[in-house]
Amino acid sequence: MSAVVTAPRGGRTAASSSRSTLTGTGRLVRFMLRRDRLRLVIWTAVVVAVYAASFAPDGEYEVLRDDAEAREKRALVLSAPVMTMLAGPGYGLDDYTMGAAVANELILWLVLTLAVMSILQVVRHTRSEEESSRAELVRAGVVGRHAPPVAAMIVVTIWNVVIAAASWAVFVGMGLPARDSFAMVAGLALAALVYAAVALVAAQAMESGGGAIGVAFAVLGGTYFVRTLGDLQERHGGALSWFSPIAWVQQTRAFVDLRWWPLAWCAVAAVVLLVVAGMLASRRDFGAGLVAVRPGRAGARPFLRGPVALAWVRQRAGMLWTAFGLGVFWLATGTILEQVPEMGEALAENPLYARMMAGTEAEQIRAFAGMIGLFAATGAAAYAIVMGTQVKADEETGRAELVLARPVGRVRWLAANTLVTLLGAVFVLAVGILAMAWGAELTGLEAVGPGDFARLGVAYLPAVAVYAGLAVAVHGWAPRATGVVWAVFGWSLAVGILADVLGLPDQARALSPFWWVSDVLTEGAEWGHVAGLAGVAAVLLVLGLAGFRRRDVPSV
């Protein structure tokens, strides 16, 4: 006589069900690493290049090694409240060493950079994959429910570990203490993983990839704001500072008075957030978010008809949040313009700023404002690329086919999306320039007036349009090669920051559209170059529309 053992409802035991949720994780990790290997190489190379340029013989920090007077001036600059906001609490200012300068001045910006990288990576492999229905195809195989998010976190961890190891090697190679160097790079990696876990939680709550990224970026901005308030309340960080992962890394006090225990907060926060993300993932339907989507109107308003209105509805939230976040930052930057001459001697030791510190106080302020205008234009260009490449996602998910099935021509559809993208980029740039002008006005600055800021913004508009045009051209002819657009953007950023430090020839600098915009506030605008950039942007837009008209949809 044989006995039949009946399994619980569902066909498998609780133990096997628990184990099966991670089935296929290893294969997904290998797939994601292969898919993103180029991104990994580029991000690592960029971070290492920034370090290497800073420690070069004429680099920003190498000049401080044997110059006590330069270090003293640098410490004086860092003690100002505005620099506390833009850098951190400032440790070791009484005896400012090269290591202390690296930690005080780089931690904040590296945490923000690695956090953005990690957030985008997690959302890319989780919520965005569900939104595009690719995750459904993956789940149709032998893949557990929790395997994709766990694999995404493993890949982000590997990514940050590789960058940390490369950074540590550069630090030690330049003569910094190995122990403190390890603490700093480990802290940066752990803080990035905290924000990656935040993104994973947001991916469970929101129903779209854009919404998840927006929530994660809001948390990133909120923790930056909290850290700033805490550090301004008390010299070496107040109670509010301890609610920010950024402060946890800074509180290690690397190269000054090393403390390991603040990093435990990063590890604990990351683990707690991962547990929360796992619980939320188990309680939601596949493809849905926990935050209910607000129902729309029963009937659309008349002005919402047509592809332009559709593009506006899709892009408006991203445009407003981007303009708000960057505007707040440039507003704060505008308030420190009047203090540039006070920092002149210390900034002159830095090859990046040496050229602009050569003139009178008014000329120094105008030159520094011009550089900040370049960074504001860079932010607008990044926005133009992100929104300009959204049409690729529309093709991948089938939304483009649904729209084109209506009486809407493909050129009209792409032109509508491009128009809204260009207007959004103009808005982001205008808000940034106006915010900087407002900040300068609040301090009573007279060296740079509203008219100067207006000319600065107008001069950079065609260069921003070139990036939007390049995104359209690449999508029109080779939609799989959108990485080319980001490569050009990355090179432009490197030219803007490291060109003088690395001594790049003009032929290399000319590959950046921003290089063709002269120092508007010091030398005057070269309107011929501005017109030339506008012509290049127009040609790229026409080429993109022509290419899109000729190829199949979708072909990505």
Written description of the protein model:
The chain has 556 residues and is mostly helical. It folds into two domains: 23-286, no CATH class; 303-556. 70% of the residues lie in helices and 0% in strands. The chain is built from 25 helices and no strands. It has helices at residues 14-20, 25-35, 37-54, 68-78, 81-86, 98-125, 127-131, 134-139, 147-173, 178-205, 209-233, 245-250, 262-282, 307-334, 344-347, 351-354, 361-388, 390-397, 399-404, 410-442, 450-477, 483-502, 506-509, 520-523, 527-550. Helix 20 (410-442) packs antiparallel against helix 21 (450-477). The longest helix is centred in the C-terminal third of the chain and has 33 residues, at 410-442. The chain starts with 13 loop residues before the first helix and ends in a 6-residue tail after the last helix. Mean pLDDT is 81; it is low at 1-19.
**Helix-strand pattern:** HHHHHHHHHHHHHHHHHHHHHHHHH
Strand content: under 5%
Please report the total strand number as a whole number.
0
Give the low-confidence spans.
1-19
Distance between the termini: 60 Å
What's the mean pLDDT score? 81
The percentage helix is: over 70%
Rg calc: 25 Å
Strand count, sense and barrel status of the largest sheet are: none
What's the number of domains?
2
Kindly name the structural category.
mainly alpha
What descriptors fit this protein?
556 residues, mainly alpha, 2 domains, 70% helix, 0% strand, disordered N terminus, transmembrane helix
Task: Please describe the topology of this protein.
Elements: H1 14-20, H2 25-35, H3 37-54, H4 68-78, H5 81-86, H6 98-125, H7 127-131, H8 134-139, H9 147-173, H10 178-205, H11 209-233, H12 245-250, H13 262-282, H14 307-334, H15 344-347, H16 351-354, H17 361-388, H18 390-397, H19 399-404, H20 410-442, H21 450-477, H22 483-502, H23 506-509, H24 520-523, H25 527-550
Helix pairs in contact: 2-9, 3-9, 4-6, 6-9, 6-10, 6-11, 9-10, 10-11, 10-13, 14-17, 14-20, 17-20, 17-21, 17-22, 20-21, 20-25, 21-25
